[in-house]
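hi!! sorry for the late reply, been swamped w classes. u asked for the two structures so here they r. pasted raw, havent cleaned anything up. first the sequence of the first protein and right below it the tokens
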Amino acid sequence: MRWLLLTVLWLMGAQALWAQALWAQDAAHLVADRIEISPDGALRASGSVTVWHGGVQITARTITYESREGRLSLSGPIRLQDGSGTVILADQADLSSDLSEGIITSARIILSQHVQIAAAQISRVNATYSQASHVSATSCFICAGQTPLWQIRAKRIVHDSAEKQIYFDQAQLRVMDVPVFFFPYLRLPDPSLKRATGFLVPELTTSTTLGTAIRVPYFIEIGDHRDLTLSPMVSSRTKTLGLRYRQAFHTGSIALEGAYSRDTLLAGQDRGYLFGTANFDLNTGYAFSGQVQSTNDPAYLFEYDVKEIDRLENKVTLVRTQKSRNIELRFSNYHSLRDSESNATQPTLVTEAIAQHRSYPNGLGGVFDLEASLLTSYRSSTSPVDGPDSGDEVDGYDTLRLSSLAKYHRDWVLPEGVVVDLATELEASHYLVRQHQDIAPVITRITSGSALGLRWPLARRFSGGAVQRLEPRIQLAGVISDANPIPNQDSTQVEFDEGNLFRFNRAPGFDLIETGLRLNIGLAGGIEYPNQTKIGWEIGRIYRTDGTNSFTKTSGLSGHVSDWLLAAQVQTSLGMELVARSLLEDFGRLKKSEIRASWHTGKHQLDATYVGLTADEAENRQVALSSLALKWNYQFLPDWLSTSEFQFDTSVGEASKFEFGLEYANECVIVDFSASRRFATSTTLTDKTEFGLSVELAGFSTGVRNIKKSRHCGAS
């Protein structure tokens, strides 16, 4: 803003010699209803006066420049707006010619359209600092004559525009004009500042495990690309220090979070956890990622509400995905937190590698896929025989598998729209097995399969614009494999759904192979309406000549004939969506069912899930299980949001989790209240009830939430 109005003088022909020296600085533009130059060289612009200079704009009723004194006088209403988002509104101003010093009376400063500071007088000390006395600052929307929801009253305030900091002397926080807190000295960030060292929003919680605790995070800006957050938490039962470290690089980022605790739950013991992630894009086209998860106490994550996981995974992954190629390499270390699992007999060290290539042969047509993979697993147990709780499984074996897979698929469209599809597959795997008394140490398996299918897509359009579709499909497939028994590690849980109804092998991995001749049949249909309502469904079944397989009863795939697969999807223009899937026996008994429903509107976000499973000893499930989960967010008023989450174990008629939250948020304050009740499913844990409360004065904090103002002055 320096030389702003002095350059205007040059444009008007006054003070020519001085202005010529300034011409090289910059140019300004002035628009006014009337411009006068007095005999003594004073310039006076009146009417609707507007001055532009770079990214700065000034509007005023009159602007007067006294060349002898080098002073500018402005009378209002005055509005000054710069490129940083700061706006100054005032009645009168007396400034130096370069606008670096002066006094502004009856002024308000608006920072980034969020914070407004009102003062009877503002003194501009230099181009960087502005100070005011007896001020009031708030980010609340205020109508004339009304009291803001909260405000900070201070004897003196200093705004450092270079460091983007606001300093208050003898500050007083008032809520509805009632004094609540007094601060001899207070520093807050300018809303335009993205990152600043200082305290974050404190949180007050009370729980049955940790008692009443207060957490006060402190953010430390280490540099432009690094920061550290320390979160001390104190209660009568725990002393905890949490931390979070983040660093960004040109090609990626890393993040670490953890905590160290000494509490009365495990007196005299050090407790804590450490989680970390890393993601980088390498110059060779590969993407590198890493993950660290560690805790010295299985109950810590539950008691301190860190994360709901029952297995820790430390891994390093290298991936490169191109148009027709994919390469993945992963090293993993697993540690189970479940009471029912022993880490000595679980595959704790796992190495996985896969390379995939897809091509489209010109002369042959269709799609040709090649895949090579590696899988190794290591268990610390050295026992070659069954453990006391292992059932029919051997505990301490280790494996290495090398596999190659070639697949070919092509479709032909016949007259009348009938589609013939041909698929072939050839797989070879080599296994090395150590410490398994029932399995040979070296196994080579070769598997081949072919399938021929017919499908007939049909569609018709109704007079109202709706389109109905129907597609019957039948497939004859055969798979042969000649190999000794292989331990099943990667396909212990098999899901039968519409996605694998017509696949060669419905197992997710390589260890389990579905052999023999089989007939897959299915019928899919649906209808789409012009109002975006969609309904779809599918039914299917499998018939086999060989009924001996390793599938469990609950999977729906065991025996000569599979269960009926039923699936349906409904989507309406009102924001409702339903997805259902079930496995049904001949006489109508449900073996497995899953239903997901959602309803999303402007006020409601409702999601519900139901899962039901029958008893199955092969899946370590002695009794039938079922659960219901419900999540509901409801914006019942413009500034009020309620959140609730509910999980219910319907098989035993007991709740397993309940959470409720209530948030009030407008442009100047965010109040968040939460309550939860969690029921432990492990003997090492206890049930927990927790309440939380946090209050945030919006506007001053960095990264301000852009909340639309819901209030208006005057009649609506």
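now the second protein. again sequence first, tokens right under
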Amino acid sequence: MKATKAFFNGEVITVDAQFSVYEAVAVYENHILSVGTNEKILAITDENTEIIDLGGRSLLPGFIDAHAHLELYGTNRLGVNGKDVKDIKELQARLKNAAESTPIGEWIRGWGYNQNNLAEGRHLTRWDLDEVSTEHPIIVVRTCGHISCVNSRALELAGIDAGKEDPPGGKYVRENGELTGLLLEAAHMNMFLLANYSETEILKGLELASQDYLAAGITSVHDAGGYGPDHIRYLQNAVQLKKVKQRVYALYGSLKDSPEMVEKGLASGMVTGLGDEWFRIGPAKVFIDGSSSGPTAKTREPYTSDPEDSGILYLNQLDLNTILGNASEKGWQITAHAIGDQAVEMMVEAIDTALENHPNSDHRHRIEHAGMTPPDLVEKMKTLEIVPIPNPAFVYEFGDGYLKDYGERVHTMFPLKSFVENKIPFAIGSDSPITTFNPLYGIHAAVNRQSKTGNPVGDTEKITVQEAIKAYTWYGAFASYEDHIKGSIEVGKLADFVVLNESILECKADRLKDLKVDMTVLDGEILVFKSPKEAVQ
């Protein structure tokens, strides 16, 4: 059998059990045919083989983003970008520009602002947004995706006034008894569902997201959900139409009322694993607490920045145990969004209870984010064989805020070295669009543990480049029960690769985020390509 494609003269990082590095790899149609020396691989080529000279560049398994929101990232592309604004006036100007081309009465949607980066050093208010328009409802989502600000028109449409009680798991922020327009957690989730995009817009957004992720070498995504119950249908449709080209493992939950969606999933008779190599149903997922950067994460002790606050809970322990216990009983993998150490502890307890009632020797139950995991919880996760899904890029993006909000607890945040030392299989997720989807930033943050400004953030938890690569490839496949078909470059596995513009193993640690993707190979097909000459330019 002759190869249909052959890649030679490179640094082929297999991520097999020995973390072997070879010179070349051969592909037959959409599977890996052989791995080895240049001589071995070129010997199985002929005049019909497409031969690619890697020129010393790294070829790795395709990156697997183990926690990302394709829909949210894609629809953000359709809205007003507030991520890089310097002050509120600049954001207002962008929103006013959008208002000029938006019919009266239709929503204006913005995203990405971070009050810590604004010159004013504060959140938006409804009065700021009323200056943009009172004829359009306006919503601007904070970078964390758990907080938003809306104008007076949006509050009116939602039937929210000063006398409205806070929703369970959420808060309408008030000053002197008056609504400011700032919405926390469930209050935000409810509002965004009212302001949500149409199905046509969502499909367009998913297509844009897929293109951007492919350019970053991401060949598989564990999709962590959208706002409403229809996002699974939208996502599956986008995969079938090839608008989303990645292989998708769909976490079954939603940002609004995740318990209700899980219950409906259980009632439908479906279960984790249903699907094929392109679209597969993943774990039942609920929300336990808020965000790390808000901060609204639920912590054991009050925030260092605010001794009166320790975050928001969506569920109590009994309800959490019941919902996920029912899922476990029916054969589902289970998981939850858990950031603060109290929330992580609650999820560990829920998994422990589920396994006591329904033993499973290969459960691979997960914890999304596992943001703050001190040693006692690391030990319990090891014992229970839990799979955490940390987000090291958060350290780079939000690290300075973590130092302010959590103090010395940053040494227990995304504790990757502790996971390695305890042989806990962890798969890295970006949580895009909360931070960048670029896996090279995630690897950079895992290896360097520094904020954007260069401050060390829990640098006792640094890991090696090899360990970070494994977490973005093989462990991602393990977390979705797909390590037998992808996640490493081994004979018989799917031909999903990424080619970088130079050697990642020889790259200096402080330059990892500057590496570029030259080529993405998915199912044996080259979808993104640059020649070595173009890469140099």
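hope this helps!! also noticed smth abt the second:
The longest strand covers residues 279-287.
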